[in-house]
Amino acid sequence: MSKKALFVRPTDGDEHQPCLCSALLLKKPRCSPPVCLCLRLSLNDMLGLLRRRSSPSGFSPSSTAKEVTAGIDGSGLVAIVTGASSGIGAETCRVLVLRGVHVIMGVRNPSAAERVREEILEQVPTAKIHIIQLDLSSMSSVRRFVHDFCALDLPLNILINNAGIAFVPFKLSEDGIELHFATNHLGHFLLTDLLLEKIKVTAKESGIEGRVVIVASDSYKHPYREGIRFDKINDKSGYNSILAYGQSKLANILHSNELSSRLKEQDAKVVVNALHPGAVVTNIVRHWGFLNGLLCTLGKFILKGVEQGAATVCYLALHPQVAGVTGNYFVDCNAVELKSHAIDTGLAKRLWDFSVSLLR
Ligand SMILES: NC(=O)c1ccc[n+]([C@@H]2O[C@H](COP(=O)([O-])OP(=O)(O)OC[C@H]3O[C@@H](n4cnc5c(N)ncnc54)[C@H](OP(=O)(O)O)[C@@H]3O)[C@@H](O)[C@H]2O)c1
């Protein structure tokens, strides 16, 4: 059996179990985002936590990042984690550091990152952690980050594209790009491109496979009707924050797939995989104020905590089962099938060329 076949598990009838929000959206396209988010959490995500059945990887939705990396020695490896100052990113840093990885936190808010760093250092006093400022919505900030990282003269084994925003009102970035698309996709596209040579060289010289891990979301299932609005990417008219988030997460997966194929063609020892972390209690909708508080309070009973939310990220970054596995989409540490629009190679190539043209 091929490696891919080993890891692919069926989607639990997900095809027939759309998220409740999409059903609602069809009837009521202007429902309020908080209502949408609550309903958007698919039954699969919530009920998954209650299941503890066997899976190809041996891990379940309730497995934590610590559990899925137990016994793995990451010392000698260097990883960059974006959006490392909170939520899934902060937990990912903590667990990578526990496994001996030297972590570079790419963050917009260095003082928040410093607090995370101090907490980690209390647990692991010998931890190697750097903080470098990074605003993914600004292409000049991405370039500065790469310059600052290269000044450290470190190798790079693992790149974790985790930072993200969700369901924000329409806004253009300083480069004039719609904010979800700029932050979630384009900034990471540029970051990956600028670091790729370093990752390839590190893999070649060390003989250790490089890994790019892209934190996407099952929201990729709900982009605009045309998938990516190439002709209207920055248009306020027709803007919908839920679909804009879905579009950016679809872009994450298309980027992962296309990058994986290109690296395979080059015979580079670097694997690329995307993932959905599950429905996780974080501050991702902090701009909702009171409703975010309510969601976090109720979410504690039915959603994943960050310990579980970071599991698939850390699994893809470190686990030996992932060696040689590339171009897949993982949920709960298992590869799952994607919907057809996310494996459309024509769309992925078009997005690649479009992203390059936006960066010129
Ligand atoms: N939570 C879920 O249920 C869920 C579900 C599916 C997918 N995801 C994905 O998981 C990833 C992590 O999200 P989370 O849930 O952990 O939320 P979170 O706690 O809000 O973390 C997001 C991180 O991204 C950072 N970030 C936002 N905009 C940035 C920018 N322009 N430049 C650099 N960093 C930026 C944030 O930094 P600041 O602190 O400075 O804002 C924060 O550290 C996201 O990609 C999200 O789409 C989450």
UniProtKB/TrEMBL annotation:
Transmembrane portions of the chain: none
InterPro entries noted in UniProt: NAD(P)-bd_dom_sf, SDR_fam, TIC32
Superkingdom, natural source: Eukaryota
CDD domains: retinol-DH_like_SDR_c_like
Family matches, as Gene3D superfamilies: NAD(P)-binding Rossmann-like Domain
Pfam hit, one: adh_short
Name recorded for this polypeptide: Short-chain dehydrogenase TIC 32, chloroplastic
Species name: Paspalum notatum var. saurae
